[in-house]
User: Fold this.
Amino acid sequence: MKRTRLENWICEVEGLSALDRAELDALQLRRLNELLSREKARGGFYKSLPERLVSLDELRTLPFTTPEQLAENAPGLLLTSQSEVSRIISGATSGTTGPSKRIFYTERDIVHTVGFFAAGIGEFVSPGEAVAVAMPFSGPDGLGELICRAVESLGARPVKFGMGRTLEEQAEMLEAERPAAYIGMPVPLLGLIRYAGGPGSLRRALVSGDACPAG
Assistant:
């Protein structure tokens, strides 16, 4: 069976020659125990958790972390020095009424995020193609920017649709740039296709952030 790009990427990052269920379970347990050991040593937010687990099945014995705890203890949850933080994402999601949370990214996290994105996007995008990226653009390491970097790493060309353009503006970009693929939310994509009278050059889409009925 042919390996997926995601499997190849995991093997590359982790230095593995192959990836099967047993190998993946062992990798996850090893990484989890490394985190538990670090947390116990530093006496951080999760210091009451065991220093190591014998198997992944023991995960079910650990308590859940609540949204309130994530929002109220962000600095205490950071496992590295703040000087190593390259990007902080802050804000409540549009689909919930929960408290605002902060997520910290080191440069290594950002590199891995781009690699992970590229592994998935590479399954449906070919070199030389234009790709419409209809996600938020909020700075050098924002979601839209990281997706564009992943697209570029595949030899494809990102077209920054963003989130704030009118349907008329998007339809004009669709006609001018002729992207073969679309990355964004399903409802705006449906609105664009209806407004433009069809998908135009679009042949494939990766949708997220909302439900997408099979029909």
